[in-house]
Amino acid sequence: MPDGHYDLRIQITDNADNVTTTDLPDKVVPTLADPGQYLNGTVSLSASSDPDTTQVDFERRPAGGGSWVTIASDTTTPWGTSLDTTSLADGLYDFRAIATDQTGHTGTSPVRANVRVDNTSPAGSLTTPANGATVGGTSVALSGSYSDGGSGVASVRYELRPTGGGSWATIATSTSSPFSASWDATTVTSGSYDLQPVITDNAGNSFTGPMRTITVDVSAPTVVLTNPGATISGSVTLNARERLGSNAGRVRGHAVRRRFVVVTRDGDDCAVERDRRHHAASGWCLRPAGNRLGQSRQYLLRRRHRDPGRQHRPARGVVDTRGRLDSSFGERDRPRHQRGCDARRRDARR
After folding, report:
1. How far is it, in rounded angstroms, from Cα 40 to Cα 61?
2. The CATH number of the domain where 274 resides is what?
3. How many domains does the chain have?
4. At 141, which CATH number?
5. Per-residue pLDDT reduced to its tens digit, 22-49
6. Which positions ≥6 away from 335 have C-beta within 8 Å?
7. What pTM, to 2 d.p., does this model score?
8. Can you say how many angstroms the Cα of residue 240 is from the centroid of all Cα atoms in its chain?
9. Residue 82 is inside which H or E element, if any?
10. Are 98 and 49 in contact (CB under 8 A)?
11. At CA 154, angle to CA 152 and CA 157, rounded to 5?
């Protein structure tokens, strides 16, 4: 039997040769294409059916029950229609298609159940970095508080532009809760920037969160150490002039770490820092960490700096000073408020 459309009948014969013939109804079997789990805006609905189909009706109802409502009827192939979901309340719906053939027989497709209509935008805002913060380095934390009461948050895109104008550029994207990300700030130049999150839900609705202004500092600080002389003794104050990259004049309120480094001739080094209890502009003091300098030896004094943008590397324009140092003094023998602020040195022959 070749492929094609056929009419079917049942013929029943009993033992007395009585015959009964019954024509089987022409059963139409349509299929509704999957519209997707989440719908928003105007969407397309489509179906397939038997060749002799003359009409397809598309219907909807609240998920799980209620009366079926006709969305539209199509009388030409391909079978399809559009649905403006904004005319519906957000929520779950069932969909189906009913096909009618040229003899008037009908058939119903399997139901596409629990399809969510969501036309409400998500919400959210940045929490990190704070507005006005200074950031830098290769791993700047980006995070926020994001929510969506319908289909749920699908992704958060973080965008950056120069403050006040220019095109927004995507610097990071997160697709899993809590939608945090890390950004390499060294990919841009130092300066002032606007930062914003763009939140998208699973239905395709998007929302742009409030903008924040941040300062990016990717420049190492410039420091010049005043030369204390080739050979020093007694209590000596070390002085340095510094400029914090692009943040000069903007460091008030930031935790700024400043270090001197003593490098011995055989390669050992010892960090020496300003006593953090003394913030007046009274110069810098030598503090051997753990008194590790040992006996008198030739040394290098080098200035290092960590600025608010977290640039932590040797500063540019440093004056290295060579000389001899004796750090064999007893920290415990000194008043507590003076410990670690000076280093006593005595003359030593080169």
Report:
1. 16
2. 2.60.40
3. 3
4. 2.60.40.10
5. 766 557 789 999 999 999 999 999 999 9
6. none
7. 0.63
8. 39
9. strand 79-84
10. no
11. 130
